[in-house]
């Protein structure tokens, strides 16, 4: 019999249900998908969604990390631990191998490796014959992403053509591709940074330690805090300060800056996120600030 | 109103809505106002917008910069694609789809409308109803958006005059009646000055209804309040066959999303197309048991009997099974730049099922400005037409009017794999 009143889901339950549905569509429609797992907070949520989508079975895809070689060691250790706990296969492909092969040539040794990840990713897609990569990008992160489809088609060169996207209606996703082409699937497209933190809180998800407030040597560059590391040493004349900071995203060491904060628990981070005045990428990603359209440009070239 | 004041607060779910109107009716300004007043626009975004506005010689911040994200759009100063924006009031999360107004972007409006549960149709108070207004309302109606809100904007430019509002309201009501629109509400606004968006302002004491935000906060999040039949398209079958865990040996979980209705442990179900019946033994999310599942929940169903079931099948309650059909009549919006070629075979994706389809007949093309029916032999991009399709295998369909999930389908061109059409079964 039919019901008399329609009960509805809370916003987190709705977002979770949508993300599970999308992951299952990828698994149902594609023959060789892979889930991109960086150890960052968005991909931690993606793993929980994959558990909810497929347990008690195994994930119908391996995990893969494109390692720039410039990641924080805490994040790499966390990545390996999480994959082992889940008992799922983790593939790591590294930029350094692409550099050794000559497919990545840096302009100078300290050039940010972030945008070069596309090359290694495309090489891995070819090596394993993946027809879909499931990623944790969100539409609220960036303007070009706001217009990308949940199932986003990429040609043989991994290129995104924003003006020639497949229309996406209802929840009828089209993840079809010909050999050599590729689908990028984004199950948490409709989540915001606040949703991600609320989900982490509700599901009690573990995160790499650098997401929480800790003391770290930094140099102030305008409004950004540059962490002082082996890769990013202080320059002569820089003033090094010990500051309480946390990371809002964890990317390549050379292009990810922390924010000043004493939030050392998820609850405190949530309170800060709700009152913050700067967007996640604005606060922390130097690579997005170079040009208003730089994410769109990188995506056209095959970026996640 | 800010997210903080309400954290953690009660959760009033999620509402997806669409804004539409002619160019310059104030869509972007209205979205900007909602984001701004809910503190969703953050300082650095505002900074970047100020810079860009100044570069273009504008004195005020151009709020449309928020939604116009692609390089080509910024260069041309128009919205090409559907942009999705998010804000939260602390009690409810909103997903806004901003679709461009021009006729050549009908397909984008159709796309945006397909997931919306409420549409805000903007009318410039000085101009009154335009052809675009009629077109957008028709599309919203066709796509089955349950709640329409006609926002008569720029009231500041007509001295907040009640008679102007009432006049447009009367004209629209007549039109709504003609095309069969039911749940329509009206609100006078100034998106620019803010009157009746979040704050009431003091200039329209004659309007006694709720503000725009109050309407959004109170709108039902479900796309229907009518009881619906249980529909569960199978997306994926879980057979762990884990030799280390004998308990899982016979595990056979049918994974999918409750597209409508609800289901509880013990309910009698039928699996289509086989027609075999069983009862629900367990309902799980990620291996954890729950007693019942409701509309839009993604779950795993376990049945008491072993029934051979795979992706593309549908589990329904035995008492309310849909019809299996091999011929469908539908309203189809053509989305592709390549016109439909009636001689070809296309692929139809309906729920998790994919079947080959041929065009049996094109009944007529609908002129969405005049609502007239015109005979045509093919469909071009943005055309909306009534067709008959012949299917190679049956699908388990409901009329779109009674069930959005099992009444909708997309048409795929197998040679390019592009999504070329959107259909609604009549
Ligand atoms: N006076 C007045 N101007 C408005 C109002 N809403 C929008 N505008 C102006 O109308 C113009 C077009 O608005 P915009 O939001 O870009 O319209 P869109 O094309 O529908 O997105 C801009 O110059 C706005 O500042 C309003 O309520 N009152
Ligand atoms: Mg606009």
Would you give an account of this structure?
The complex is a heterodimer of chains A (304) and B (426). In chain A, α1 (11-29) packs across α2. The radius of gyration of chain A is 19 Å and the shape is globular. Chain A folds into two domains: 11-194 and 293-300, HUPs (Rossmann fold, 3-Layer(aba) Sandwich), CATH 3.40.50; 205-289, no CATH class. In chain A, α2 links the parallel β1 (33-36) and β2. In chain A, 33% of the residues lie in helices and 15% in strands. The relative contact order of chain A is 0.16. With 304 residues, chain A is α/β, with parallel strands linked by helices. With 426 residues, chain B is α+β, with helices and mostly antiparallel strands. Chain B folds into three domains: 3-218, 3-Layer(aba) Sandwich (Rossmann fold), CATH 3.40.50.300; 231-320, Elongation Factor Tu (Ef-tu), domain 3 (Beta Barrel), CATH 2.40.30; 323-425, Translation factors (Elongation Factor Tu (Ef-tu), domain 3). Chain B has nine helices and 22 strands. A six-stranded mixed β-sheet of chain B has the order 2-3-1-4-5-6, with helices on both faces. Chain B is globular and about 75 Å long. Mean pLDDT of chain B is 88; it is low at 1-9. Residues 27-28, 64, 79 of chain B line the site of magnesium ion. Chain B: It holds the Pfam family GTP-eEF1A_C. Chain B: It comes from Denitromonas iodatirespirans. Chain B: Keywords: ATP-binding, GTP-binding, Nucleotide-binding, Nucleotidyltransferase, Transferase. Chain B: It is an enzyme of class 2 (transferase). Chain B: Its EC number is 2.7.7.4.
């Amino acid at each position: 019999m039919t019901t008399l009143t329609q009960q509805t889901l809370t916003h987190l339950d709705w977002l979770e249900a949508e993300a599970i549905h999308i992951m299952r569509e990828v698994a149902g429609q594609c023959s060789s998908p892979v889930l991109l797992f960086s150890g960052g907070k968005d991909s931690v949520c993606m793993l929980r969604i994959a558990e909810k989508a497929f347990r008690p079975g195994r994930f119908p895809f391996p995990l893969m990390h494109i390692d720039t070689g410039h990641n924080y060691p805490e994040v790499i250790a966390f990545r390996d631990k999480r994959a082992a706990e889940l008992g799922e296969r983790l593939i790591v492909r590294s930029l350094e191998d692409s550099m050794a092969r000559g497919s990545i040539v840096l302009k100078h040794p300290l050039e940010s490796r972030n945008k070069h990840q596309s090359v290694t990713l495309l090489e891995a897609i070819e090596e394993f014959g993946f027809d879909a990569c499931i990623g944790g990008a969100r539409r609220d992160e960036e303007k070009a992403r706001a217009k990308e489809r949940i199932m986003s088609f990429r040609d043989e060169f991994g290129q995104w053509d924003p003006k020639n996207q497949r229309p996406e209606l209802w929840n009828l996703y089209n993840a079809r591709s010909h050999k050599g082409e590729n689908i990028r699937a984004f199950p948490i497209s409709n989540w915001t940074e606040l949703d991600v933190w609320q989900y982490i809180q509700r599901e009690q998800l573990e995160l790499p330690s650098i997401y929480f407030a800790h003391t770290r040597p930094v140099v102030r560059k305008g409004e950004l805090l540059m962490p002082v590391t082996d890769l990013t040493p202080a320059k002569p004349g820089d003033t090094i300060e010990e500051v309480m900071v946390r990371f809002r995203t964890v990317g390549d060491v050379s292009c990810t800056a922390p924010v000043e904060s004493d939030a050392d628990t998820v609850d405190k981070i949530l309170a800060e996120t709700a009152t913050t005045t700067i967007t996640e990428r604005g606060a922390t990603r130097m690579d997005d600030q170079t040009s208003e359209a730089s994410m769109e440009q990188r995506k056209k070239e095959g970026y996640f | 109103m800010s997210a903080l004041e309400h954290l953690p607060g009660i959760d009033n779910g999620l509402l997806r809505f669409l804004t539409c109107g002619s160019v310059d009716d104030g869509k972007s300004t209205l979205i900007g106002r909602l984001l701004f007043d809910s503190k969703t626009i953050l300082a650095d975004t505002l900074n970047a917008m100020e810079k860009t506005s100044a570069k273009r010689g504008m004195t005020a911040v151009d709020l449309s910069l928020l939604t116009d994200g692609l390089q080509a759009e910024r260069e041309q100063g128009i919205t090409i694609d559907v942009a999705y924006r998010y804000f939260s009031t602390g009690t409810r999360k909103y997903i806004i789809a901003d679709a461009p107004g021009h006729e050549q972007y009908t397909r984008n409006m159709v796309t945006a409308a397909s997931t919306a549960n409420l549409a805000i149709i903007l009318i410039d108070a000085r101009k009154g109803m335009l052809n675009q207004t009629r077109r957008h309302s028709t599309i919203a109606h066709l796509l089955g958006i349950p709640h329409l809100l006609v926002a008569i904007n720029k009231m500041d430019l007509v001295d907040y005059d009640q008679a102007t509002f009432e006049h447009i309201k009367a004209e629209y009501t007549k039109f709504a009646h003609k095309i069969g629109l039911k749940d329509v509400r009206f609100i006078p606004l100034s998106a620019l000055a803010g009157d009746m968006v979040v704050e009431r302002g003091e200039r329209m004491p004659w309007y006694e209804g709720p503000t725009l935000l109050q309407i959004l906060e109170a709108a039902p999040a479900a796309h229907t309040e009518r009881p619906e039949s249980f529909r569960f398209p199978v997306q994926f079958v879980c057979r762990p066959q884990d030799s280390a865990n004998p308990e899982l040996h016979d595990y056979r979980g049918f994974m999918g999303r409750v597209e409508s209705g609800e289901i509880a442990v013990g309910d009698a179900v039928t699996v289509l197309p086989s027609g075999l019946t069983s009862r629900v033994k367990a309902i799980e999310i990620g291996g954890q048991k729950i007693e019942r599942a409701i509309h839009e929940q993604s779950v795993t169903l376990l049945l008491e009997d072993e029934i051979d079931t795979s992706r593309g099948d549908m589990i329904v309650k035995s008492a309310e099974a849909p019809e299996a059909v091999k011929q469908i009549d539908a309203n189809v919006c053509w989305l592709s730049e390549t016109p439909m070629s009636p001689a070809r075979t296309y692929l139809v994706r309906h729920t998790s099922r994919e079947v080959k389809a041929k065009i049996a007949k094109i009944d007529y093309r609908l002129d969405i400005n005049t609502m007239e029916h015109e005979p045509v032999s093919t469909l071009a991009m943005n055309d909306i037409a009534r067709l008959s399709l012949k299917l190679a295998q049956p699908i388990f369909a409901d009329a779109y009017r009674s069930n959005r999930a099992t009444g909708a389908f997309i048409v795929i061109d197998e040679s390019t794999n592009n999504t070329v059409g959107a259909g609604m079964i009549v």
